[in-house]
User: Fold this.
Amino acid sequence: QKEVEQNSGPLSVPEGAIASLNCTYSDRGSQSFFWYRQYSGKSPELIMFIYSNGDKEDGRFTAQLNKASQYVSLLIRDSQPSDSATYLCAGAVYNQGGKLIFGQGTELSVKP
Amino acid sequence: GAGVSQSPSNKVTEKGKDVELRCDPISGHTALYWYRQSLGQGLEFLIYFQGNSAPDKSGLPSDRFSAERTGGSVSTLTIQRTQQEDSAVYLCASSLKTGAVNTEAFFGQGTRLTVV
Assistant:
């Protein structure tokens, strides 16, 4: 079982809709979770991170963490074609130096 | 510097040759991480440094891979006797510190290695 799992997609949503990206993790020692966006041929770009149960909002993005269910999600409101990218979920365990363990990524396509 | 800098951005090498990949982290960042991303795949952890020491080398695929960091800054990833399966994008990230739940890691633009 992979430590961090994501649906590979592709996930297709119409412009203006809410895109919901999901991630589960197996290591209960994971303390923080990060969402990165990666455009084709580019390096990952940090969107936001979360380490407390509940929701964290930043503009059009909301990260949700449920430690009991070992579940992390990212909601993108008012999706734009420019949001089309692969979204990578990563967990970090700080007694392991904070190394990020990544899921395989979910490809998101926002159709105009 | 303004961001994590990696060089070269592209490297084509012949099978069996050695290559060195360089990472210059954000100034003041004590933690440095190396990842590998094969085509269409997620990021695979290779090694991380806290200062000049490498507490976790568990992701290095074989003894052909090694890394060092000097002066708590620049790091070099060396691949000896390259094989075609080493072809991938090698990504470096740095963060301000380890051991804190709100520490963000920022990536460089990567080195695309092609072994022919």
